[in-house]
Write a structure and sequence with these properties.
Layout (H helix, E strand, L loop, with lengths): L10 H10 L2 H8 L3 H15 L4 E3 L4 E3 L1 H26 L5 E5 L2 H18 L4 E5 L14 E6 L7 E6 L2 E5 L22 E3 L6 H8 L10 E2 L3 H9 L4 E5 H10 L10 E2 L3 E6 L7 H15 L1
């Protein structure tokens, strides 16, 4: 018996507009025009014989029928996306594509990746560090490590690790004319900044220091270069625990004083629904949790 289906090309537009409550944001997500999204939803409403959105001058709102419909359509699209990924992944079963930030890749993942390759010599890892949240289907991503609040829509998001931040520096800065002994000694040293949202101003406020300029020093867009600058003695970095752990363990960096703050963001392992049915994805996911626990 033939299925009675709506216009399938209209469903992604409806789903995106329902999630964003904005035709414009839906168009941006789908890389189409606002008019195309509006037209697709209007066509879907005509086929269904009911309004899915209440349209206002600068906003849209789901009708009760629209809310009920998207509650069914959204998970169905997720299952289709997962099935599509599983089917296409079979063509490259030995290649695992991982999306993460350049900081996490360069300072945490890469120094440990040889252990994953030793355990899974049949898998080749491809790292994507574009700095934006990749689209799993469009960008061919198998699994991602993201840094945030964990509220990622349409995917599975598993908590991986918390993070704290504390000043770190080269051991050489513990000696010399102005050795680092207390936070007040930072006035004699250059501050290093990366693109992290918890900066020196917040840290100085928490430790009660108000006579050091928090935005002075050297600034980097990449955490990789900021950590390297600290290793080479360029100054003191407010280091994120995951990104400086290898350098601390190797003695390239030290914590001059034991004062840290917990970040409100954490690391999450993110992947499409059903992705763990692929052995390569499950192997990498399990390895990540084992490495972080170690």
């Amino acid at each position: 018996m033939a299925r009675k289906l709506p216009p399938l090309t209209a469903l992604p537009a409806f789903d995106a507009a329902a999630r964003h409550l904005s035709f414009t944001k839906a168009a941006d997500e789908l890389l189409v025009t606002h008019a195309a999204v509006s037209r697709a939803i209007r066509n879907l409403e005509e086929v269904l014989g009911t309004r899915l959105f209440e349209r206002h001058t600068r906003s849209v709102r789901l009708t009760p029928q629209g809310a009920a419909y998207v509650a069914e359509i959204g998970p169905a699209l997720d299952r289709i996306a997962a099935a599509t990924m599983a089917a296409s992944a079979s063509r490259a079963a030995g290649v695992l594509t991982v999306s993460t930030s350049d900081g996490f890749a360069g300072r945490w993942l890469v120094p440990r990746l040889h252990r994953f390759h030793s355990a899974h010599p049949d898998l080749d890892v491809r790292l994507s560090t574009s700095g934006v949240h990749a689209d799993f289907i469009r960008d061919g991503i198998d699994i991602a490590i993201r840094y945030g609040m964990g509220d990622y829509q349409g995917v599975v998001s598993e908590f991986l690790a918390d993070e704290d931040v504390s000043p770190v520096c080269s051991p050489s800065l513990l000696e010399g004319k102005h050795p680092l002994r207390t936070p007040a000694d930072l006035r004699h040293h250059r501050l290093i900044h990366d693109n992290f949202q918890l900066g020196w101003e917040k840290w100085f406020h928490e430790v009660g220091i108000d006579d050091i300029k928090p935005d002075g020093g050297v600034k980097f867009d990449s955490a990789v270069y900021a950590v390297e600058a600290a290793v080479y003695g360029e100054g003191v970095l407010l280091g994120r625990s995951a990104l400086v752990s290898a350098d601390l363990a190797a003695g390239r960096l030290v914590r001059p004083f034991d004062i840290s703050l917990k970040s409100r963001w954490s690391y999450y392992v993110v992947y499409p629904e059903g992705a763990l049915r692929q052995k390569k994805v499950k192997a990498f996911r399990d390895w990540l949790f084992a490495e972080m626990a170690a």
